[in-house]
């Protein structure tokens, strides 16, 4: 998700890039969403008619990428998540009332996974 908070950090970039979601298994947690805490769950519940996705991406990218598309190296990549469901929002279609902004095609976002090096923690007491 995009985090557009005000900051004076010139290195801050609010849009996630090259996110890879892979090797996960999802359970029944989405069958009983908490609609009382925060607005995101309520929004998702409404636009999906209660069919909550396992993986959600808000679809927000810089304006020039909304118009001209994201570079391939910046796109979200899904893979090896079992039978996970996916949902993203098309921001332009969301702003126009006669389009369905919801995109559920998991396959449209599959690609080559390039795993990062494992993060290892040493236990210190």
Bin the helical content.
10-25%
Cross-sheet strand order for the largest sheet: 2-4-5
How far is it from the N-terminal to the C-terminal residue, by CA?
Answer: 35 Å
The number of strands is 5
Estimated share of beta-strand residues? 5-15%
The best one-word shape is globular
- The succession of helices and strands, N to C, reads EHEHEEHE
As a whole number of angstroms, the C-alpha radius of gyration is 17 Å
H/I helix tally: 3
Q: Report the structural category.
A: alpha/beta
Low-confidence stretches: none
Mean pLDDT: 85
Indicate the topology.
Elements: E1 20-22, H1 40-47, E2 55-57, H2 63-68, E3 77-79, E4 86-89, H3 91-95, E5 102-103
Parallel strand pairs: 1-3, 2-4
Antiparallel strand pairs: 4-5
Can you put this structure into words, describing what you see?
The protein is α/β, with parallel strands linked by helices and 125 residues long. It has a domain at 32-109. The protein contains three helices and five strands, in the order βαβαββαβ. The strands form two sheets. It has a three-stranded mixed beta sheet. Strands 1-3 form a two-stranded parallel sheet. The longest helix is centred in the middle third of the chain and has 8 residues, at 40-47. The mean pLDDT is 85.
């Amino acid at each position: 998700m995009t985090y557009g908070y005000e900051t004076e950090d010139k290195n801050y970039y609010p849009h996630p890039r090259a996110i890879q979601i892979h090797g996960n298994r999802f359970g029944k947690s989405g069958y009983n969403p908490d609609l009382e805490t925060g607005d995101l769950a309520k929004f998702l519940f409404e636009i999906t008619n209660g069919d909550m996705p396992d993986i959600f991406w808000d679809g927000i990218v810089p304006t020039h990428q909304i118009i001209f598309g994201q570079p391939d190296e910046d796109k979200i990549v899904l893979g090896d998540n079992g039978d996970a469901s996916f949902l993203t929002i098309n921001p332009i279609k969301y702003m126009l009332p006669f389009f369905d902004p919801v995109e559920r095609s998991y396959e449209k976002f599959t690609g080559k996974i390039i795993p990062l090096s494992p993060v290892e923690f040493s236990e210190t007491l």
